[in-house]
Specification:
Length: 164
């Protein structure tokens, strides 16, 4: 029994050395992909369109508010109240449009990025399998990285290039 325990203790370091670890910087990989600049351009164009729409709505609110302020003294109480409600509704519509636009941009980003993220994950998995890695960590996540950890970022980029 003592010999078995001794043998297991001696084999433990060997099992540790048999493991292969890698690290990858997915941010570097993502930034190097041409799809990302296309997606960013599309999202920026959409955001600009949303911004222009909101600007025109805000200009309309300002125009109506200024007109109300000028004509307020000639309006009766009912007309004043009705116009104030209209202005409040327009303000709320602007706020709701802003929130809807933000949600639409986030959803669009997620939808457009999903295939790219899947492509990078597949490449990391292929590098892991072909390289015999036990683990591949995202760079910057590990608290400590020893000398036996290999940076596989360039291998993943090469794997993605093969897929094109």
């Amino acid at each position: 029994m003592k010999k078995l325990i001794l043998m297991l203790m001696l084999m433990a370091p060997i099992a540790t050395f048999a493991q292969k670890f890698g690290k990858v910087n997915t941010q570097t990989i993502m930034q190097s992909l041409p799809e990302i600049s296309k997606i960013n351009g599309e999202l920026e164009a959409q955001a600009k369109q949303y911004e222009n729409d909101l600007k025109s709505m805000q200009d309309e609110l300002k125009r109506q508010s200024d007109a109300y302020d000028k004509g307020k003294s000639t309006m009766n109480a009912t007309a004043q109240q009705q116009k104030e409600q209209e202005l409040q509704q327009l303000y709320q519509k602007i706020q709701q449009t802003y929130q809807d636009n933000q949600q639409a941009l986030q959803k669009g980003q997620q939808e457009k990025m999903q295939p790219v993220v899947a492509k990078v994950r597949d490449a990391i998995e292929n590098v892991g399998k072909t390289g015999g890695y036990t683990y591949i960590f995202e760079e910057g996540v590990a608290v400590y990285t020893g000398t036996n950890v290999e940076d596989v970022t360039s291998k993943v980029q090469a794997e993605i290039s093969k897929v094109k």
